[in-house]
Write a structure and sequence with these properties.
259 residues, mainly alpha, 9 helices, ABC transporter transmembrane region fold
């Protein structure tokens, strides 16, 4: 497996590389602005404290700082909008291209393949799996780069103030790295189980729709309903297991990083 999580999609992303460049430029600007706002606020507070120590304090400068912070906030919002627009649009175009290529590939396969493959699996790959790729490229890609840029800029700012305190703040990072690797493997396993169960549901539904006359002729309606209910219940349980892992992991990482 490649260490680069985006390498499998390089051929699909290449036609939209300029949209990616624009989106990443907006992302870089957004992170820079988000780091600069606390610095401006700090300067305003320090200047206000120094002014209050005088006999006749003049706080009119706070208006300029307030306008600057509002302007930076609007700039951050604009960059965030541009970043999400370009990255999300690219992810939907990649989703379209993958689905079209998948369908074109199905048309080249021999008849024997379709006699062995489950229709539900083929439908799940064309719908749920491709949508998962779109969410990964849209949200996962953005969050991954935002975390890296935000962490890098924050570390630079913290080191400029107090590098020793920064080292203490980095102490939980090895623990979080180990936990992330352990939880990541379990998330992939449980997510794969969810996708497999979704394929089973799609197969059951397709078989019943195509063979509805047989089901009614042999009075199999109750049995098929019970079978479909069991598949749905299992799908819910697998999703609950995945959600439980998410809901346990993220609060724990926030706790470790907060400490």
């Amino acid at each position: 497996m490649s260490l680069n999580p985006f390498k499998p999609f390089a051929s699909y992303l290449r036609p939209y590389r300029w949209a990616l460049v624009i989106g990443l430029t907006f992302l870089l600007g957004e992170q820079l602005v988000s780091v600069s706002i606390p610095l401006v606020l700090e300067r305003a507070i320090d200047q206000a404290r120094a002014s209050l120590d005088q006999t006749a304090p003049d706080l009119t400068f706070l208006t300029r700082y307030a306008a600057l912070i509002v302007g930076l906030g609007l700039a951050q919002w604009s960059m965030a909008f541009g970043m999400r627009w370009h990255l999300a649009s690219t992810s939907y175009r990649v989703e379209r291209d993958i689905r079209q290529r998948y369908f074109a590939h199905l048309l080249t396969l021999p008849i024997g393949y379709f006699q062995q493959a489950r229709t539900g699996d083929l439908m799940a790959r064309a719908t749920n799996d491709v949508e998962a790729v779109q969410r990964y490229l849209s949200h996962g890609f953005r969050m991954f780069l935002s975390a890296i840029l935000g962490f890098s800029f924050s570390m630079v700012a913290m080191c400029l103030y107090d590098w020793e305190l920064t080292l203490y703040a980095l102490l939980p990072m090895p623990i979080m790295t180990v936990i992330l690797r352990l939880v990541g493997s379990r998330v992939r396993q449980r997510y794969r189980m969810v996708q497999e169960q979704f394929a089973s549901i799609s197969t059951c539904l397709q078989e019943n729709l195509s063979g509805m006359r047989v089901v009614k002729a042999f009075a199999r309606r109750r049995g098929e309903i019970d079978h479909f209910t069991r598949l749905n219940d299992e799908y819910v349980e697998r999703n609950r297991s995945l959600i439980y892992l998410y809901s346990t992991f993220f609060p724990f990482t926030f706790l470790i990083s907060g400490l």
